[in-house]
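Troubleshooting log. The previous run stalled partway through. Resubmitting the same two chains, unchanged.
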Amino acid sequence: GENVEQHPSTLSVQEGDSAVIKCTYSDSASNYFPWYKQELGKRPQLIIDIRSNVGEKKDQRIAVTLNKTAKHFSLHITETQPEDSAVYFCAASIRKVLTGGGNKLTFGTGTQLKVEL
Amino acid sequence: DADVTQTPRNRITKTGKRIMLECSQTKGHDRMYWYRQDPGLGLRLIYYSFDVKDINKGEISDGYSVSRQAQAKFSLSLESAIPNQTALYFCATSDFQTSGGTYNEQFFGPGTRLTVL
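Second attempt completed without errors. Output:
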């Protein structure tokens, strides 16, 4: 099955700096890569996702890049703010149209991001 | 407001007891999932269901069973709880658009913190 590795496990940055979290996946058939943010004591929530037909996607201060050849993808947060402090999870999934397995996510182990004032 | 709810939110039990965690959703989604979250291990899939008649094992199903009573309800049971099942358990739901095979976001419940003594 799919295996997703995520690094680093903890990341501390100064407010205003950029943060980068990296993930690798093992199954070349994976084609959907979401990122979830989990604030302390809260449920995970989707913040951005990318499909394998594009190499980069941006949404305001966050962006995700995908390198299918190397089987890795990254989350980039620019101009970090204290409210960005949370655990971030990457995930991978294989699209199977109309059959079982679609949308079954394999998650990375998470990155605890701390934005310091 | 359409949402995903879980009961109980917290539970302390003893080794050998049978425990049921319940999940309900008002989003009208067909797909439901159970995950457990452990520090340093991320979110791991226990079971998933793509419709009422479809139940599938995830990566860590041993010691767990599920029941999909209706489209809106998906229960997780621990037949004989053991201490290493102490964890935070999340239910999630997603929709699936067959047109284009588009993936949709997974929406998580608030979680159930289970402690097995």
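Takeaways: Chain B has a mean pLDDT of 91. The radius of gyration of chain B is 14 Å.
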